[in-house]
Amino acid sequence: MSDPELLAALTLQEQKDVIISILVNFADDGDRLIAYLDHIGFDLGALTSPHDLGDAVLGHYRIKAGRYDVDRACNDFASWPPIAAEISRRMVKKTKGWPNDL
User: Fold this and answer.
1) pLDDT in the model for residue 73
2) What's the longest Cα–Cα distance across the chain?
3) For residue 23, what are the contacts with CB-CB under 8 A and spacing of at least 6?
4) To 5 degrees, how large is the angle CA 24–CA 40–CA 65?
5) CB-count burial class (<10 Å; 0-12, 13-18, 19+) for 54
6) What is the pLDDT of residue 3?
7) Cα-based distances in Å from 52 to 12, 33, 45, 48
8) What whole-number percentage of the chain has pLDDT above 90?
9) Is the per-residue pLDDT at 41 higher than 60?
10) pLDDT at 2
């Protein structure tokens, strides 16, 4: 099963869990959380309370009733500069030593 097929096969709860798990990465660093929310185009002004953040971010990725754009959430995370830099670093490290450094 390819990644798009896998993501399409996620239950509603699994879709929510993937999106919320991304936010959990920032739970202990408010400044990074705010920078990340800015990166994804989330309007902090829409929040009435910090307790609303999880539901509001889910709403940011809601496509329709019972469906969330998990692909977009994952792409947003992978394209956030600190994560993108780490992905790039690991890819370069993995390819070092290949014949002729292709």
Assistant:
1) 96
2) 56
3) 33, 53, 54, 57
4) 80
5) middle
6) 60
7) 19, 14, 12, 7
8) 63
9) yes
10) 45
State residue 95's pLDDT score: 75
**Residues of the chain with pLDDT > 70: what percent?**
85
Pairwise CA distance, residues 5 & 70, whole Å: 12
Q: How far apart are CA 79 and CA 39, in angstroms?
A: 9
- Contact 10/70 with Cβ under 8 angstroms? yes
pTM of the model: 0.79
Burial 17-28 (b: 16+ CB within 10 A, else e): ebbeebbeeeee
- Domain range list for the chain: 3-101
